[in-house]
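Input structure tokens:
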């Protein structure tokens, strides 16, 4: 996120002309008409994002499962733990660049970020809160009342406004300043031969990696089965569409900051990049809905190392150290 004020003003809570810019080469950050960008709303959302008191027992916040140092994922955990240490159903994905997504959750069951946030607030596997608890907690805090007034023009508090504020903050969390981005822009940085080989392989017809992990965000936002299993107990996108061909299909994740967001797949069952690449190199397992592009690649160890070297280039250290995203 690049932030600026009109007439070179200091960026603070009183600045009315702050501009939230997208990374170079990205489309403008999209904000819905019913939740437009406003600095005061972003600041409120940032505070709510890190507030554990919104959860049922005060133990979990949004940031508990979406940590900035791990590109806002829950690295190291196959599934996250919510209130009362309750295990989640799926791996916690990164929320970076979520402003550009057209659906949310691995099964794509909601199309608005605000609705995804509401589910997380109320889910027994996550924050296990209630609308009454959330409203009462915020109403008992005079500082929050002032922030809601600045954000929305009055101090009326409801869960929709809570979700709008968190969503507004979340949409400002963008990543597009990795070594690969600099290289693509023509910045004179040192690219090793193995990294260059990895770039060529990734975008080649041989691997077809970029046919799904495409565009500026390295995802087409669509749903596929990659042959992780021969039988899927979690039926994925099928729960949304009820179509047989969607059993075992899941949303294509972005590859940005991938080294920080392990483990991988919808259930966190693959623990390392090398293991992940081996899965695709072997062509996955037999499954009726497996995408036809998932087939044995016959890549050498050197080629696999090259692909891994390229994926490491997608790490954006400026994003994970950006104070605009940190605990206020």
């Amino acid at each position: 996120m690049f932030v600026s004020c009109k007439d070179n003003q200091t960026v603070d809570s009183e600045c009315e002309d702050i501009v939230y810019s997208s990374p170079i080469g990205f489309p403008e950050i999209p904000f819905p008409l019913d939740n437009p960008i406003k600095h005061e709303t972003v600041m409120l959302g940032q505070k709510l994002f890190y507030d554990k008191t919104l959860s049922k027992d005060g133990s979990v916040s949004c940031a508990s499962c979406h940590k900035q140092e791990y590109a806002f994922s829950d690295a190291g955990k196959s599934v996250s733990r919510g209130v009362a240490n309750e295990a989640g159903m799926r791996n916690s994905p990164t929320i970076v660049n979520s402003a550009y997504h057209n659906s949310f959750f691995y099964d794509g069951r909601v199309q608005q970020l605000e609705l995804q946030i509401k589910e997380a607030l109320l889910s027994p596997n996550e924050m296990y809160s209630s609308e009454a608890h959330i409203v009462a907690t915020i109403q008992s805090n005079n500082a929050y009342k002032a922030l809601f007034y600045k954000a929305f023009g009055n101090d009326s508090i409801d869960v929709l406004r809570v979700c709008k504020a968190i969503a507004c903050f979340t949409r400002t969390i963008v990543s597009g300043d990795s070594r690969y981005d600099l290289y693509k822009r023509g910045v004179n940085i040192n690219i090793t031969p193995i990294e260059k080989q990895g770039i060529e392989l990734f975008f080649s017809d041989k691997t077809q990696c970029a046919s799904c992990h495409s565009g500026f965000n390295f995802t087409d936002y669509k749903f596929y089965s990659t042959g992780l299993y021969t039988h899927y107990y979690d039926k994925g996108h099928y729960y949304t569409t009820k179509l047989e061909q969607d059993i075992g299909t899941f949303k294509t994740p972005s590859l940005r900051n991938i080294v920080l967001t392990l483990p991988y797949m919808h259930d966190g069952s693959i623990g390392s990049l090398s293991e992940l690449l081996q899965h695709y190199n072997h062509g996955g397992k037999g499954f009726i809905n497996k995408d036809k592009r998932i087939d044995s690649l016959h890549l050498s160890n050197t080629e696999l190392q090259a692909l891994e070297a390229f994926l490491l280039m997608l790490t954006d250290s400026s994003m994970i150290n950006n104070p605009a995203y940190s605990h206020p």
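Confidence is low (pLDDT under 50) at residues 4-14. The first strand starts at residue 2 and ends at 4.
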